[in-house]
């Protein structure tokens, strides 16, 4: 399952980060690396962006970027 399909309040473990070049590096730099637990805190009213909690901080990313991140639901 990809991160953009995870519902608000649900958690998962990142299994892989896709994308190419600068996009993939940006996602990894933000802490979205494999084996990291991530929780979807909330989703904007129009569905984009989504707010995540991981590694002790909150991060907001676009839904298009979240499609590149594979998660395993906890």
CATH architecture: Roll
| CATH topology grouping | SH3 type barrels
Strands of the biggest beta sheet: in what spatial order? 4-3-2-1-5
Distance between the termini: 12 Å
Q: What is the CATH level 1 assignment?
A: Mainly Beta
Mean pLDDT: 93
- Rg for CA atoms: 11 Å
Question: Any key phrases for this structure?
Answer:
five-stranded antiparallel β-sheet; about 70 residues; about 40% strand; single chain; SH3 type barrels
Topology diagram in text:
Layout: E1 11-17, H1 21-29, E2 37-43, E3 50-54, E4 57-61, H2 63-66, E5 69-73
Antiparallel strand pairs: 1-2, 1-5, 2-3, 3-4
Outline the structure in words:
The chain is of the alpha+beta class. It has one domain (3-73): Ferrous iron transport protein A (FeoA) (SH3 type barrels). Helix content is 18%, strand content 39%. It has helices at 21-29, 63-66, and strands spanning 11-17, 37-43, 50-54, 57-61, 69-73. The protein has a five-stranded antiparallel sheet. A hairpin with a 6-residue loop joins strand 2 (37-43) and strand 3 (50-54). The protein is globular, with a radius of gyration of 11 Å. The N and C termini lie close together (12 Å).
């Amino acid at each position: 399952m990809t991160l953009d399909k995870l519902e608000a309040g649900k958690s998962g473990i990142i299994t892989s980060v896709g994308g190419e070049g600068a996009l993939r590096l940006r996602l990894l730099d933000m802490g979205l690396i494999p084996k990291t637990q991530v929780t979807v805190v909330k989703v904007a009213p129009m569905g984009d962006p989504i707010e995540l909690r991981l590694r002790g901080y909150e991060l907001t990313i676009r839904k298009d970027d979240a499609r590149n991140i594979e998660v395993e639901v906890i």
